[in-house]
Design a protein that fits this description.
The structure is a single chain. The protein is α+β, with helices and mostly antiparallel strands. About 45% of the residues lie in helices and about 25% in strands. It is built from three helices and nine strands. Strands 2-9-8-4-5 form a five-stranded mixed beta sheet, with no helix packed on it. A hairpin with a 5-residue loop joins strand 8 and strand 9. The two termini are about 15 Å apart. About 20% of the residues have low confidence.
Length: about 190
């Protein structure tokens, strides 16, 4: 009986050790070039996005310009955890939304979006004027930045909450297994 109880205890512990790794193994965007919020001084022909795990065939990327035009890359190459997108022509000045859809190593589809801009010499002057206006606007409405930051971290809070739940379940499982082992040990005496 002691061997059976030890086996159950070890299997329960292993289950909860392995579970978090598989439950939270989804791929996330770790780095991109250009990055979210970048303001480039000249057009680009190549983009590179790096993820936390290998990405599979079927992963895609597209851009949407500020006038709503969808721009497809001429090629998308996948190399382990890096997606490279090439464009026939250099991207012109403007704001671009990057929409990516990947299939992670675990087979789950994941998507995301971020923005960057390419400045022209006249846009650089406008950007400086906009920065002054934005600073003045933030002085009048300081909660605006807080709201934006809360939206950026909402994904991290969900992940943290899930990890807390897994830890609680693992603790309960270990306590139950330990209780069973102690009970079996007392019954032998």
């Amino acid at each position: 009986m002691l061997k059976k109880s030890c086996f159950i205890l070890v299997m329960t512990a292993m289950f909860f050790i392995v579970l978090p790794g598989s439950a939270y193994g989804h791929s996330v965007l770790e780095k991109s070039d250009p990055a979210d919020g970048d303001q480039l001084e000249q057009g680009i022909k190549i983009m590179e996005l790096s993820y936390s795990t290998k990405i599979e065939n079927g992963s895609t990327l597209s851009l949407r310009s500020e006038d709503g035009q969808e721009i497809q890359p001429s090629s998308v190459d996948l190399n382990n955890n890096v997606m490279s997108a090439s464009f026939d022509e250099s991207l012109r000045p403007g704001v671009y939304d990057v929409n990516w859809n990947i299939i992670g190593a675990d087979g789950h589809p994941i998507d995301g979006q971020y923005s960057f801009s390419i400045l022209s010499s006249s846009n650089q002057v406008k950007e400086n004027d906009n920065e002054v206006s934005e600073v003045e606007s933030n002085k009048q409405n300081p909660d605006a930045n807080i709201t934006a930051n809360q939206q950026d971290t909402s994904g991290n809070e969900t992940s943290s909450l899930g990890m807390i739940i897994v830890i609680i379940l693992a603790s309960i499982g270990l306590i139950l297994a330990g209780g069973m082992w102690i009970r079996k040990k007392k019954n032998r005496k």
